[in-house]
Amino acid sequence: MQTFPMFLKMSGRRVIVFGGEEEAAQKTRLMLKTEAEIVVVAESLCPELAELARAGRVIHHAPAITADGISGAVLAFCASGCPGADAAHAALAREARVLVNAVDQPDLCDAFTPAIVDRDPVVVAIGTEGTAPVLARRIKSKLETELEPNLGRFAASLGRMRGMVAHRVQKDARRAFWAWVWDVLRPLHASGAEDEALNRMTEAALAGRAPDAARAGSVSLVGAGPGGVDLITLRGLRRLQEADVILHDALSDPEILELARRDAERIDVGKICGDTKRPSAWQQDRIARLMVQHASEGKHVVRLKCGDPGLFGRAREEMDACDAAGIPVEIVPGITAAFAASAEFNAVLTERHEIDAITLASARKATGAACTSAAPTLRPGGAIAYYMGVREAAAIEAGLLQTCPADLPCQIVSRAGYADARSVTTTLSDLSGTIERDGIKSPAILFVKWPTSHGVAAATAPVARVLHA
Ligand code: SAH
Q: Active-site residues (predicted)?
């Protein structure tokens, strides 16, 4: 940034406008929005400026002015319409240590006037450091349509009520109160029902909290991605920042929690996906009960799950618990481990003419036993991404070898998304051997691919071997 945006208090400060014609009138109009004292330095004034001088809204000064005469001003607009005169005025202003804005001469400017969206006291200033005024105007038009015309009055009313709200509404209820004000009362105010919106706000502040309907809690099952803090979606990030309570898995990247509000309660439900034998593992029903309990207290609960919540994440049980308690629940999708694992090493999941279908399969049943049910579905042109497969690799391998060629290409990707992500390639008949020899640990995805060009013929050998063994 070569310039720094800042909102200056203008009350009691002096601004000099050099020039008496249209350019000067434009800058004067801008300054008239503020409480600055405006001195227009010119030989003669256009009718608009002359009228303002007569009304005492600007001071007219003859062109013969010295640096002393302008020192103490905060800003000088050089807007005479003549580049040479503007340059001379700029030099004079600089001698008096006054910041300069010269019309259409960015090189002479210390300060640029932004495009302004004015909803006083809400003011949006858009600057491009003089490079692209058209872009600034485009952004301004967009914001003009987004910010309702009476937003400023709403903000001013909030400002007046802030003290009363701080006094009446307990600290832990205040966030919900302001959320209700923005989500419910702002649209009401914007629709024109200003008095009603403000009356409701006063009533709620006196009652010490937002009305009950707005206090209903909710649960969001948020996919955190497989690891790597930047693999969460923008929607997931927003939910995380709105959350009062976060229940997180052992598998989600701890850095993601840094993105949440500082005062959000974080609960490590310490449950490595699928590992119910882990002593500290929280039982699923306990997690569900905890979620419901917090949401019933009117809190926004985020259940942060690794990868995508809808894949091997026991989301169904958690959603059923919410449904049974009448708590609104949603899924915010995440990047599943197979997608991240594939992208991590620039592999692709499907490939024209080679792989046209991919199965996402769990290598383990709910009972903890190996699950090989996906094996018979693997055909030429297909691939399987196995989750939770590290310990079950031997069973997967044996299952697939019954119908697939022994030399099918396999890729094992562990800790996708993290700095120590690792990829090893091998063949089907050496899948479990590779995992053992290379010491590959969970979490990892096991990809088994049967490209079309690999051919079917090769499959007959191992099939025959298995069948005749
Ligand atoms: N809901 C998750 C899957 C949970 S099951 C998702 O959509 O990704 C847990 C399994 O996911 C692990 O056993 C492993 O197979 C896989 N997994 C999770 N994180 C991973 C990572 N960073 N790298 C590779 N595999 C991962």
A: 249, 271
Position 285 scores a pLDDT of 82
Instruction: Mark which of 159, 183, 207 sits at the end of a domain.
Output: 207
Active-site choice (249, 253, 308, 449): 249
Peptide bond into 121 cis (omega under 30): yes
Domain range for 230 is 218-334
Contact 214, 186 (CB under 8 A): no
Q: Whose CA is nearest to atom 19 of ligand 1?
A: 226
Ligand 1 atom nearest to 305, measured from its CA: 1
pLDDT single digits (tens) 372-381: 888 889 999 9
Does any ligand 1 atom lie closer than 6 A to the CB of residue 228? no
> Is the peptide bond preceding residue 114 cis, with omega within 30 degrees of 0?
no
Please tell me the pTM assigned to this model: 0.60
Per mean pLDDT, which range of 84-88, 208-212, 442-446, 463-467 is the poorest?
463-467
- The verdict on 328 and 343 lying in the same domain is no
Examine the pLDDT at 273 and tell me if it is beyond 70.
Answer: no
Annotation marks residue 249 as catalytic: yes
- Whether 122 is in a domain gets the answer no
